[in-house]
Design goal:
The protein is α/β, with parallel strands linked by helices and 451 residues long. It is built from 20 helices and 14 strands. The chain has a three-stranded parallel β-sheet with strand order 1-2-3. A three-stranded antiparallel β-sheet has the order 4-5-10. Bound molecules: glutamic acid.
């Protein structure tokens, strides 16, 4: 059975790249009827923080990436110690102690191999050949080898007793029965060293298949980092993206599902295949993400959107502790086709929740340019008399008036919309009036030409 894992280090929030790795693993597990393990790699005792662990788990749950098994490496130190002792027991040619740390004797182990090279059949990149001397040379700095190439031995357990990332990772992957390691391309160079560790530990038959995912670039073509703005999944949540939309966007970062772009997770995971993952870097683009989010908001259920938007309206001081939820639902129904993120509602529909609105100088000049004050006054008086203030009534009052005045409705629609909403665009005028309510509609019509 396929078993994959997502192995974040809790040294920061779950970022976009990590979420994409988690997602691809998750989809692969679902596509194959396999299992997905979440393993918190908190062996770096200084940099790992429980709050990051909680944040990562929350973000995963928010994205809908559930796990079948959960492990924390800090609970497993005894296992790593035992494995290190086992290697020490095999003699210096395998592992040795120096300055309180335990080292893997890469020099000796690689001498046993016919060649100083190792290859990995990566499921995405194909066969990748590594020159061990080049990769792990004592004289290598920033990828440049100077002088004689000589292999550097590898720390397995540090002097403080904590295992190194590669050592704990290999032991866990082998003992947890991980069949496929799907991770970022930045880990490609760790792979040959990890293969040597599997062999030394006697797990040679447990070496998983590897798939290294292309990096994610920011819009300027450099690797995505904090400089590019929001990198944490929770930042996107705060910015008003829906989890379904973010997941849909992330799956397109490196995977080509065909010509569909809007692909909900439950459909995507049955189609997911590693063969369709690209080798070349993926590019993160805010415009595309906003477009996908808009599609999901449009399709989302009004009640769900209302639950998400009400706290935002409260935070912005647009509603208090008691509010008319039904009215908010109607308004969201009107505006959800015009939003890219949830806070767009506050921007576009905020005029429904304030007593006064302010028109820009241009809007005032536009109203003044064609004096409709007489029509505004009549419209206000008649609407004030309406006993039912719904779409049909406001429309009838409006249409009767323009017929009487002998003007085209378009001549009055635009200035009325400006006066009511301080915007030149929006949903239908009568829908807008109905949700704005009689008092505010009449008051704004009456004051429009006074300002
Ligand atoms: N803890 C490692 C990381 O966060 C995991 C790498 C791996 O998947 O092997 O980068």
């Amino acid at each position: 059975m396929v078993k994959v894992r997502f192995a974040p280090s809790p040294t920061g929030n779950l970022h976009i790249g990590g979420a994409r790795t988690a997602l691809f693993n998750w989809m692969y597990a679902k596509a194959q009827g396999g299992q997905f393990v979440l393993r918190v790699e908190d062996t770096d005792l200084e940099r790992s923080k429980p709050e990051y662990e909680a944040e990562i788990m929350n973000s995963m749950a928010w994205l809908g990436l559930t796990w079948d098994e959960f492990y924390k490496q800090s609970d497993r130190f005894a296992i790593y110690k035992e494995q290190a002792e086992k290697l020490l027991g095999q003699g210096e040619e395998v592992a040795y102690k120096k300055d309180g740390a335990i080292f893997l004797n890469i020099k000796a182990l690689s001498r046993r191999r016919p060649k100083q090279e190792i290859f990995v059949d990566d499921l995405i990149r194909g066969r990748v050949q590594f020159d061990l001397m080049f990769l792990y040379s004592e004289h290598e700095k920033d990828g440049v080898v100077s002088g004689e190439k000589e292999l550097r031995d590898e720390v397995l357990v540090k002097s403080d007793g904590a295992p190194t990332y590669s050592f704990a990772c290999v032991i866990d992957d082998a003992m947890m029965g991980i069949t496929h390691v799907i991770r970022g391309e930045d880990h490609l160079t760790n792979t040959p060293k990890q293969v040597l560790m599997y062999e030394a530990l006697g797990f040679g038959d447990k070496v998983p298949k590897f798939a290294h995912l292309p990096m994610i670039m920011g819009e300027d073509g450099t690797r995505m980092s904090k400089r590019h703005g929001a990198t944490a999944v929770s930042d996107y949540r705060k910015m008003g993206f829906l989890p379904e939309a973010l997941v849909n966007y992330l799956m397109l970062l490196g995977w080509s599902p065909g010509n569909e772009e809007i692909l909900p997770l439950k459909n995507a995971c049955t189609k997911f295949s590693i063969k369709k993952v690209n080798k070349s870097a993926a590019q993160f683009g805010m415009e595309k993400l906003r477009w996908i989010n808009a599609q999901y908001i449009k399709k989302a259920d009004v009640l769900t959107l209302t639950d998400l938007i009400v706290p935002m309206l409260k935070d912005a001081g647009l509603i208090g502790e008691t509010y008319d939820r039904g009215r908010i639902e109607v308004a969201i129904g009107l505006f959800k086709g015009r939003m890219s993120t949830l806070p767009d509602f506050l921007e576009r529909a905020g005029f429904l929740f304030t007593k006064d609105i302010s028109l820009t100088d241009e809007m005032k000049a536009e109203l003044a340019a064609k004096d409709m004050s007489a029509a505004f006054a009549l419209l206000a008086d008649r609407l004030a008399q309406a006993t039912v203030f719904d779409i049909a009534t406001t429309e009838k009052v409006f249409r009767d008036l323009v017929a009487e005045l002998g003007i085209a409705s378009g001549e009055l629609v635009h200035p009325v919309r400006l006066a009511l909403s301080a915007s030149a665009i929006g949903p239908g005028l009568f829908e807008t009036m109905a949700v704005l309510g009689k008092d505010l509609t009449v008051a704004r019509l009456r004051s429009a030409y006074l300002k």
